[in-house]
Write a structure and sequence with these properties.
five-stranded mixed sheet; alpha/beta; Trna Endonuclease, Chain: A, domain 1; about 40% helix; 10 helices
Amino acid sequence: MKEDILEQLVDDYLQHKGYFTMHNVKFKPTKEAIGYKAKKDSAHSDIDVIGINPHYRDPERIWVVNCKSWQSGVNLAHWISGIEKGKVLIGKDAWKTFRELADPKWANAFIDKIEELTGTRSFTYVTAVTKLIGVKSKWVEHEKFRENLKENPIEILTVKDILDYMHKNTAKTVAPSDVGRLLQVIKASEWERND
């Protein structure tokens, strides 16, 4: 089950682009992983959405999406600094919010899970956000993140990106989801925001 509206939006977006999707896939390092500490590594993390499109080539064929539906958006510099300096953000160690980017042990477990499910270690990692604050390139080109993900590409997807795409590409055929149908009704109404 998709747990929040951003996961539902991402799911609709990927399905509209021809991806088959799965949700809330659990992963964690094995006890044999180098540096494994039961106190730090025994609780599962999850992958919010995985999309597989057999018509695309690697790494575009597999999209692995971490959703952050924070109302205030995601301030990239703030999170990078928090991860690099070992800060506590929103009540927990910053690295734990992006384990697969920040910690090699968790990145290996993440990649192993993707391979187990898809048969490949090649994928596009996507951070989906309500709103982006900061310079995208600092996140998607971050050396440590890229190294931990074995040089797989990193992207950012905003709600605006999703809505722009869905608005442009939604037809009149009934959409397969509540979110898709809502977007169709909004489009059919010819509503536009007037500031």
